[in-house]
Amino acid sequence: MDLDAVPQEGNATLDGHSKLMYARDAQGRVVTTTSRGWEAEEIVTSHAVDVLVEQARAAKERVKAGLASPLEYWMYERRMDVALLSQTSGFWQWRVRRHLQPRHFAALSPAQLARYGEALGLPVSILRELP
C-alpha cells in the first residue's frame, strides 16, 4: 500500500486510537505510519466480537447445564479460542479441549489452574466459577 493510500476513515473499535501500519513511500521504501482505520475493518471487528460474545453466552449456559467447565466460558469471555488459550497457557490444544469438560477441569491441579489463571488474567478462585 502506498503511503498516501493508508486509510484514515476512522474506526470506532479503535476507540479514537490509531494503529501502526507499513506502507511504501515515494522512494519505494517500506516505512511505518499510523492509520485511524477504515469502515470495512470496523465491520469485521465488530462482527468477530459479536461472535465471541455469543460464544461466551452459549458457554455460560453449557456450564450451568453441567456440559462444560467454567474454563470454556472464561476462554470466550477473554476473547480467546482453543488455539490462543493453548499458546498463552502452554498446554497442548488437545489438553485445553479436554479441560473444557467438567470432570477433567475438576481434576486439574492447583499449578495447572494457576497457568490458566495467568493466561486468562484471572485469579484461580474466579476461574473456578461463573460470574
Question: Secondary-structure map with pairings?
Answer:
Layout: E1 19-24, E2 30-35, H1 39-64, H2 70-77, H3 82-89, H4 93-99, H5 102-106, H6 110-120, H7 124-127
Antiparallel strand pairs: 1-2
Q: In a few lines, what is going on in this structure?
A:
The protein is mainly α.
Task: Based on the model shown, name its key terms.
single chain; 131 residues; mainly alpha; 434 Repressor (Amino-terminal Domain); two-stranded antiparallel sheet; 7 helices
Note down, in words, how this protein is organized.
The chain is mainly α. The protein has a domain at 51-128: 434 Repressor (Amino-terminal Domain). The protein is 53% helix and 9% strand. It has helices spanning 39-64, 70-77, 82-89, 93-99, 102-106, 110-120, 124-127, and strands at 19-24, 30-35. Strands 1-2 form a two-stranded antiparallel sheet. A hairpin with a 5-residue loop joins strand 1 (19-24) and strand 2 (30-35). The mean pLDDT is 92.
Low-confidence stretches: none
Lateral strand order in the biggest sheet: 1-2
Q: CATH first level of the domain at 51-128: which class? A: Mainly Alpha
The rounded distance between the terminal residues' Cα atoms is 45 Å
State mean pLDDT (0 to 100 scale).
Answer: 92
* Number of helical stretches of at least 4 residues: 7
